[in-house]
Design brief:
binds D-malate, two-stranded parallel sheet, single chain, D-Maltodextrin-Binding Protein, domain 2, 324 residues, alpha/beta, globular
């Protein structure tokens, strides 16, 4: 091909790229959520999805691609066309731990994604079925110790945040509780309500509706301070389990290679969501927090993703942890 023709093609491409970015989005955007509908990742994605739809004038449509602790959806997202019409919402811990845990998870949580922003930080809560014969955390731990292997807990799959939080609970309490993996925390919670499961290390984003409806019991929050909206729920330390602190971060990523003007549009919309009182209230009503100063930029999420990838990959290798 002649040099002049190459130049013409390059010029046309340069002209098209900003135009495509300028009218972005001009059709619905797919938001891949790698867990079942109704769970914390899905709930956070829908709350922000509504704000993005309203602000950008196109529907942000949630697609639940569940399986293998969230890695099926992450792999799918990593291979999507990087044009801004597929974006990805995930819980950071299972996202970054996935490739170390699952040989099939052939994606790189840092290189294959572009950080847009953190949607919510959410502490985990110790939640038990309504009629479990233990009225507080100390009694629950004693009951679990007296019944080794007989109680069970549900999670969103091996390597999910709700799994890792319960693994930590077992290690710190010396209890042996059987793991039952689900395709998301939403369906697991249904089984806790029906009494099929005994226990979960759930997030407020998932369990608050059931807690308010008095269909489950919440024994403690796994963070240093009580959540302001739930002043009656003791911290794990107050309830007899010092040092048990686990929290989840849910975040939005674009696909690596997405044009910069589109990334800028998405992150500007995220910044507007942080300022939107209705969106903030919905997150806080679910016992979760929006990112604070220093945590609320794409760069902060990018740095967090890099740190968490290194931390979890090392912990998984050291502990020789495998997804069953
Ligand atoms: C998890 O990692 O446990 C997820 O947040 C579960 C979910 O969103 O269903």
């Amino acid at each position: 091909m002649k040099f002049r023709s190459l130049l013409a093609i390059a010029a046309a491409f340069v002209a098209i790229a900003p135009a495509a970015a300028q009218d972005y989005p001009n059709k619905p955007v797919t938001v891949i959520v790698p867990f079942a509908a109704g769970g914390p990742t899905d709930v956070a994605a829908r709350i922000y999805g509504e704000f993005f739809s309203r602000t950008l004038g196109q529907q942000f449509v949630i697609e639940n691609v569940a399986g293998a602790g969230g890695t099926t959806g992450a792999l799918r997202a990593s291979r999507a066309t990087p044009d801004g019409y597929t974006i990805f919402v995930h819980n950071v811990a299972p996202h970054v731990a996935g490739p170390a845990l699952y040989p099939s998870a052939q994606y790189d949580p840092v290189k294959n994604f572009e950080p847009i922003g953190t949607l919510a930080f959410a502490a985990h809560y110790i939640v038990v079925k309504k009629d479990l014969p233990a009225k507080d955390l100390k009694e629950f731990i004693a009951f679990a110790k007296a019944n080794p292997g007989k109680l069970n807990y549900g999670s969103a799959g091996a390597g999910s945040a709700t799994h890792l939080a319960c693994v930590l609970f077992g290690q710190q309490t010396g209890t042996e509780i059987t793991h039952v993996p689900y395709r998301g925390t939403g369906p697991a919670l249904n089984d806790l309500v029906s009494g099929t499961l005994d226990f979960m290390c759930d997030q407020g984003l998932n369990m608050m509706g059931q807690y308010r409806g008095n269909t489950v019991r919440v024994l403690a929050v796994a963070q240093a301070n009580r959540f302001p909206g739930l002043p009656d729920i003791p911290t794990a330390a107050e309830a007899g389990l010092p040092g048990y602190e686990v929290s989840a971060a849910t975040a939005m990523y674009a696909i690596a290679g997405t044009p910069k003007p589109i990334l800028d549009r998405l992150s500007a919309t995220m910044q507007a969501a942080y300022k939107d009182a209705a969106t903030r209230k919905r997150i806080e009503d679910l016992a979760s927090e929006m990112p604070g100063a220093g945590q609320d930029t794409p760069a902060a999420l990018g740095a967090f993703t890099v740190r968490e990838t290194a931390r979890w990959t090392e912990a998984i290798k050291k502990g020789n942890i495998k997804a069953q």
